[in-house]
Amino acid sequence: MPRIALVPSEPLGLRMAGIGIRYLEMARRLPEAGLEIVLLTAGDPGQVPSLPEAVEVRAFERGKLSSLLADCDAVVAQGQLANDVLLEMPALPSAIDLYDPWLVENLHYRDTLGLDPYRNDHATWVLQLSRGDFFLCSSQEQRAYYLGFLTALGRVNPDRVAGDSDLAGLIAPVPFGLPEELPPYQPLLERTGEGVRRLLFGGLYDWYDPWTLLRALESLEAKGSTAWQLLVVRNPNAEGTPQRLFGEVEAWCRERGWWDSKVLAIDWVEAHRRYDLLRDADLMVSPHRPSLETRLSLRTRFLDALAAGCPAICTEGGAMSRLLQEYQAGWVVPAEDPEALAAALKEVLEDPAALAQKRRGAEALRERFAWPTVLEPLVKFCRNPRQDPTKEDFAFRPATVAPPDGLGFRFKRWWRRWA
């Protein structure tokens, strides 16, 4: 029986984001496919939620992977810790998880963090895509994007295509999965007033567009549609994730007397209670601006919402809007169009039949994204793990090039350090 190591970069605990939840679910599901699992966590192993007895949890230690992974036949690794795996264990067959396109996400933080994240992220992707043996992505949109990167690094080559014409053995969509059954519902939030619809935005990151939503709600408020409450979620890692947008939204809402009344900030919910939060909500609505990031990301928050039967409104573009339209599981509106968003919200607030129809569409998505189904390509690799025989002959690693940070940013960085 193959023994597979799972190495996510996010520590596993009660308050996990999408990557942590993804790897916890992998650890729970892969033994059902006849695989032994070793889960490495960058945090305290004692904080990892319950897992089947067949899963062994070990603490990640940089420089000690040769002993930690010595009894493993292959590894599935994600994020920065995948670098350690590839450098310390180059002979171990590796599946590199590119579900989260963090290089593209971090492009939005140039003004806050400078060019260092880009230098690090680009060099990391060059290493991982040149040395990994199998790659996971979230959607066909992502697959096409990463195939371009793989081609540039020599991984799409005549020998590889000769034995794998569609490259299904090189990169495959393995999206975030959904449970076959949800845990019993335990209300998490206090009940709203009679007839008030609760709208969940979630965390505020720079690639989202809360302003179009706030203008749409302002328009509805002016027309007398006041029966709504909007929830935003505080980031649990405020020190490591820029919070500019959250602060700007809070200030805007305070000016209008909405903060702590119409718009509420709530703390990050423990992972096992996330479906309770979504069942407390009537709608997930997280519009975004047109960008490469939003076209490539398959939003974990939307998939979880659909699993909970909570319909969604999203902006055109990318895999998520395609799925919402295909399954009639929500509303898709043009980018930066508050009038179109207000019209969709009006249906949510005033048309129970339309809301019920979208809920039925949301429930239909669960079967397609059930964990056993989405994990099939990864299971196939793990049952017969091997290194890509073509990478030694064709792959190469170009240097990452970026200009120095501008004088203005360097001054601001210096000022923040000494202020």
Brief overview, please?
The chain has helices spanning 18-29, 65-68, 81-88, 102-106, 110-113, 116-131, 140-152, 158-163, 210-222, 244-255, 274-280, 292-296, 300-307, 319-327, 338-350, 352-368, 371-374, 376-383, 391-394, 407-418, and strands at 3-7, 36-41, 55-59, 74-78, 94-97, 134-137, 171-173, 197-203, 228-233, 263-266, 283-285, 312-315, 330-333.
> Alpha-carbon distance between the termini?
57 Å
Beta percentage is 5-15%
The strands making up the biggest β-sheet line up spatially as 3-2-1-4-5-6-7
Determine the structural class based on helices, strands and strand pairing.
alpha/beta
DSSP strand count: 13
Return residue spans where pLDDT drops below 50 for at least 5 consecutive residues.
Answer: none
Descriptive report:
- It is a single chain.
- The chain has 419 residues and is an alpha/beta fold.
- The protein folds into 2 domains: 3-177 and 373-413, Glycogen Phosphorylase B (Rossmann fold, 3-Layer(aba) Sandwich); 197-368, Glycogen Phosphorylase B (Rossmann fold), CATH 3.40.50.
- It is globular and about 65 Å long.
- 43% of the residues lie in helices and 14% in strands.
